[in-house]
């Protein structure tokens, strides 16, 4: 047994060494003392809000010493899965509150956004159904699709709805082109006739690029190509929850498409400042997930501590307290983006670039062929940014990702920009340069983010 374990671990060591040689080895790191956070997804910095902390502790004290004891429930643990001993009136009331806030018929809590996506995509598509997904969809959706009974899984070019010249030379096609192929007759006729369902998987804001999904165009395309009503859009609103829409209700609510989208995944570990997730759907779909979503059925339910934090975050948003925070965040995003554009345009080396913005989201990728070097330099100067490399992003699109938060200041942003500027100056003759045309196309002082 010892030799077998040793042989296995030798294999592990070989694979890890291989990954390290390719600069792809992952390690667990944290935010060092005194580091300025430009990396986490806590966009609204809700955990720093005195109102949030006060209300959370008050709820734990009042509810935890009365209601929980009366019902023999634990403050810290839940006791089991939702279908056994882990359910509570508090959890079900919270689900009703979440559904109402997002304008949906029903909500079902999951322990994480990953669990929600795996549960949805592994159980909802039936044999013969098809999943069409944005090529940059989150890894959790891919894992759900692997477990799915869907007959086909087809990717489409990121955020590309209708065919363009760029799509014609790409290995992946637009959503419209994919759906046209799937309804082109012959063996595909059953899709056109509505006998097979097509699920379209997208995100609200994409975590690596910070761009917003063209949801209205996607809905129009799905309706036109699948007129029998067998096209179902599932949107992961992980990074748009708390950021887009009135009071942070998300992209679907911002566009008034609440009754047009089959399912929404709202996660609470980003702007909401807590943990967990909820699927917004019909009552029938909710009950179906309770019966078939294995990531819900076979896991211990969230404890009261987690449920309470979610409730307090939703109360904060629903009372309009986050509106001023969102306004400030947008100002920080605009300031940072314009400053990065100027830095990029004034850098003749082409070591780094930023793309034209199509949304105001707090995620700004800085593309560079040397993301690890840039990130390390910024970290040494006290600014926590992370290098994002393949396979997390496609080869050739490596970047350092800047995530902005309400708690950031313009002083901190100026410090980060100064560090980036110094890194460019120190490495201008070291790394390979982008072409003049590439820099001109991707760095333009005339472009402003849409606020």
Q: What does the average pLDDT come to?
A: 89
Give the biggest sheet. Answer: 7 strands, mixed
Measured between the Cα atoms of the first and last residue, the distance is 61 Å
User: Count of DSSP helices?
Assistant: 18
Hey, roughly how much beta strand do the residues contain? 5-15%
Q: Which stretches of 5+ consecutive residues score pLDDT under 50?
A: 433-451
* Multimeric organization: single chain
General description of the model:
By secondary structure, this protein is an alpha/beta fold. It is 42% helix and 13% strand. It has 18 helices and 13 strands. It has helices at residues 2-21, 50-65, 67-70, 89-101, 113-123, 139-147, 165-168, 175-182, 189-192, 215-225, 251-254, 283-292, 294-297, 304-318, 323-345, 371-380, 410-427, 436-442, and strands at 36-37, 106-110, 130-134, 152-156, 198-203, 231-236, 263-267, 277-281, 352-353, 363-368, 383-384, 386-388, 399-403. The strands form three sheets. It has a seven-stranded mixed beta sheet with strand order 2-8-7-6-5-3-4. A four-stranded antiparallel beta sheet has the order 9-10-13-12, with helices on one face. Strand 5 (198-203), helix 10 (215-225) and strand 6 form a beta-alpha-beta unit. Helix 15 (323-345) runs parallel beside helix 17. The longest helix has 23 residues, at 323-345. It is globular, with a radius of gyration of 23 Å.
């Amino acid at each position: 047994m010892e030799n077998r374990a040793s042989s296995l671990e030798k294999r592990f060591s070989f694979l890890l060494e291989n990954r390290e040689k390719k600069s792809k080895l992952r390690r667990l790191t944290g935010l060092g003392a005194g580091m300025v956070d430009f990396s986490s997804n806590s966009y609204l910095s809700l955990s720093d809000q005195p109102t949030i902390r006060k209300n959370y502790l008050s709820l734990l004290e009042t509810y935890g010493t009365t209601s929980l004891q009366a019902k023999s429930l634990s403050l810290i643990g839940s006791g089991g899965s939702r279908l056994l001993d882990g359910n509570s009136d508090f959890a079900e009331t919270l689900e009703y509150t979440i559904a109402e806030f997002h304008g949906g018929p029903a909500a079902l809590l999951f322990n994480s956004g990953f669990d929600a996506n795996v549960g949805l995509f592994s159980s909802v598509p039936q044999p013969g159904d098809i999943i069409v997904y944005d090529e940059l969809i989150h890894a959790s959706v891919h894992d759900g699709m692997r477990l799915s009974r869907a007959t086909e899984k087809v990717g489409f070019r990121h955020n590309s709805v209708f065919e363009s010249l760029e799509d014609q030379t790409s290995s992946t096609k637009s959503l419209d082109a994919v759906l046209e192929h799937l309804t082109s007759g012959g063996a595909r006729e059953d899709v056109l006739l509505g006998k097979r369902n097509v699920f379209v998987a997208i995100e609200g804001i994409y975590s690596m690029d910070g761009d917003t999904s063209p949801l209205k165009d996607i809905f129009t395309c799905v309706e036109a190509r699948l007129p029998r009503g067998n096209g179902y859009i599932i949107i992961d609103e992980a990074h748009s929850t708390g950021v887009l829409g009135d009071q942070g209700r998300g992209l679907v609510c911002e566009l008034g498409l609440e009754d047009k989208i089959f399912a929404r995944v709202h996660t609470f570990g980003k702007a909401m400042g807590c943990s967990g997730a909820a699927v917004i759907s019909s009552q029938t779909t909710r009950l179906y997930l309770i019966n078939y979503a294995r990531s819900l059925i076979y896991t211990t339910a969230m404890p009261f501590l987690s449920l309470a934090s979610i409730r307090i975050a939703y109360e904060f948003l629903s009372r309009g307290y986050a509106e001023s925070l969102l306004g400030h965040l947008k100002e920080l995003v605009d300031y940072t983006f314009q400053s990065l554009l100027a830095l990029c345009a004034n850098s003749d080396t082409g070591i780094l670039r930023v793309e034209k913005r199509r949304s105001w989201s707090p995620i700004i990728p800085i593309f560079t062929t040397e993301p690890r070097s840039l990130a390390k330099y910024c970290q040494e100067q006290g600014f926590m940014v992370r290098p994002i490399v393949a396979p997390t992003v496609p080869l050739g699109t490596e970047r350092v990702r800047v995530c902005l938060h309400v708690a950031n200041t313009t002083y901190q942003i100026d410090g980060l920009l100064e560090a980036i500027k110094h890194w460019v100056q120190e490495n201008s003759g070291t790394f390979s340069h982008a072409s003049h045309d590439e820099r001109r196309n991707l760095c333009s002082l005339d472009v402003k983010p849409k606020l």
